[in-house]
Specification:
Blueprint: H1 3-10, H2 15-23, E1 27-29, E2 32-33, E3 47-49, E4 52-53, E5 61-66, E6 95-97, E7 105-111, H3 114-121, E8 129-135, H4 142-149, E9 164-169, E10 172-177, H5 184-191, E11 196-204, E12 207-208, E13 216-218, H6 221-227
Parallel strand pairs: 7-11
Antiparallel strand pairs: 1-2, 1-3, 3-4, 5-7, 5-13, 6-7, 8-10, 8-11, 9-10, 11-12
Helix pairs in contact: 1-2
This protein binds uracil.
């Protein structure tokens, strides 16, 4: 981890304050003053500030049931940030693992562990995300084969990765995808001439939504490990 991040994660300092202390030569790593904020340090390095050894706080892992008309951003924009629903210390250290659109509801993962979130969002890791989709027009069962083969989205040269379509009723389906392209689910249905009227994420990997809308909880140790085997 970069030295400025290490200092922030071990103290109550803001990023600006941490940088100022590092650049002023107030931090030592293994007995030497280090004033380059981008120096990589590890948990077993001996980092000292104000005569105290710094020890980063453990990473945090949460799930939330996102309400509609909220945005997956740390700050309010056209709609309020979903962080308005999360009463937690230092929310600015957290980020959202894969964004949902403002009108999409359901499961959102939140963490301050960048490597963990990369392993969930990277298409190479094949982490399945299940969406419940309400459609404007009836779905034909031939769509199952099309989605399994991969769909050519408008403006993309590559097909989508194989997706699993389960038909619930004529206008409701479950779609499992392993990627997270921009507006992917809406664009997949648009490409077969249909329109998404409602979109709700039910699960990511082994983690299934089990809290009410607007509520959140910490993930269990098993869930954290399962999502990053
Ligand atoms: N696909 C979409 O189109 N929107 C989302 O919010 C998530 C996946």
């Amino acid at each position: 981890m970069r030295l400025d991040k290490f200092v922030c994660k071990s103290t109550a300092l803001t990023k600006v304050q941490a940088i100022a202390h590092i650049e002023a030569g107030d931090i030592t790593v293994n007995g030497k003053v280090i004033s380059d904020i981008s120096t990589q340090v590890h948990e077993n390095n001996h980092v000292m500030f104000a005569e105290e050894q710094l020890c980063p706080r453990p990473f945090r892992y949460l799930l939330m049931n996102k309400p509609a008309q909220t945005i997956c951003s740390n700050i309010d924009e056209a709609y309020p940030s979903l962080f308005n629903y999360i009463d937690i210390e230092r929310p600015q250290e957290l980020h959202i693992v894969g964004r949902l659109d403002a009108d999409t509801t359901g499961l959102v993962l939140i963490t301050d562990d960048g490597r963990w979130s990369f392993n969930i969002t990277s298409p190479n890791k094949l982490c399945p995300k299940v969406y419940r989709v309400h459609l404007r027009q009836s779905i034909d069962k031939s769509a199952k084969v099309l989605f399994a083969q991969g769909i050519k989205l408008q403006g993309e040269s590559q097909l989508t990765a194989p997706a699993l379509l389960t038909i619930v009723d004529d206008k409701q389906v479950l779609l499992t995808i392993t990627e997270g392209k921009f507006h992917q689910v809406k664009r997949m249905f648009a490409s077969i001439g249909n329109k998404v009227m409602g979109l709700h994420r039910e699960s990511i990997g082994c983690v299934t939504l089990d809290v009410d809308e607007g509520q959140w909880r910490y993930l269990t140790v098993e869930e954290i490990k399962h999502l990053n085997p």
